[in-house]
Amino acid sequence: MRIAYTSDLHVDISQRNWELVPYMSEVLKMIDPDLFVIAGDISPELGDMEYALDCFSSLRCPKLFVPGNQDIWVLSEEMQEKGHDSYEKYYFYLPEVCRRNDFIPLWMEPVIFRGVGFIGSIGWYDHAAGPGVTEGDFPQLHRYLVDSIWNDMRWACWSDISMMVEKKPAPVRRPDPEVAREFNLRLDQDIESFNRDASVSEIVVVTHYPPFIEMSVKGLPFPGSHDTGAILYSYEKVSTSISGHIHEKKDVLAKNVRAVRSPVGYISQDHRKYQEVVKDCLEVIHLLDRDDFLPEGQT
Question: What confidence tens digit (pLDDT) does each residue in 218-234 have?
Answer without folding.
Answer: 777 788 999 999 999 99
